[in-house]
Design brief:
This protein is α+β, with helices and mostly antiparallel strands and about 160 residues long. It contains three helices and five strands; from the N terminus they run αββαβαββ. The chain has a five-stranded mixed beta sheet, sandwiched between helices.
């Protein structure tokens, strides 16, 4: 077997560097704790964009084992009636911050709180992918434009 001598001028392979990081800028004692779906709804609304009545948006809340919030990510924005969610990107973020659980939320600008077939399928897909990665999908909320009006998949036995 021959030996290879590394030549800085002619590297064997040229590849991109991958950097994975999560920077926590909030002390543990200042992180909110989610005890129920209404806690999550209030916190999501405080981070939601101002156009909740016009544009559908999907946000993700990352939690530690004690259900303290590690962070919230505005994951996607779409049109008046839909937005696209790529589960690979969602779980890449979840793995990056070493979260224990997720709560996801999206809004229905129409105010209709009935989950669609697509909402149900996405919830099941995220639940199954989460099981594979040992990350629990704790809830999926659908928010209406009016404060206090939301649908919780967990509260309704869908998770």
């Amino acid at each position: 077997m021959g030996s290879y001598k590394y030549d800085k001028e002619k590297p064997l392979l040229t590849v991109s560097e991958i950097v994975i990081s999560y920077r926590n800028k909030v002390p543990f004692t200042s992180r909110p704790k989610i005890k129920c779906s209404s806690d999550a709804e209030v916190l999501f609304r405080s981070y939601w964009s101002d156009d909740i009545e016009m544009i559908e948006e999907f946000n993700v809340m990352y939690l530690d084992r004690s259900k303290h919030v590690k962070g919230i990510n505005r994951f996607s924005r779409g049109g008046c009636a839909s937005t696209v969610i790529d589960p690979r990107l969602l779980f890449a973020s979840a793995l990056k911050c070493l979260c224990f659980g997720l709560i996801v939320a999206h809004n229905h600008p129409s105010g209709n709180l009935v989950s669609s077939v697509q909402d149900n399928e996405l919830t099941e897909e995220l639940k199954q992918i989460g099981k594979f990665h040992n990350i629990i999908l704790l809830d999926h909320l659908i928010l209406a434009p009016q404060v206090g009006f939301y649908y919780s998949f967990a509260d309704n036995g869908m998770l």
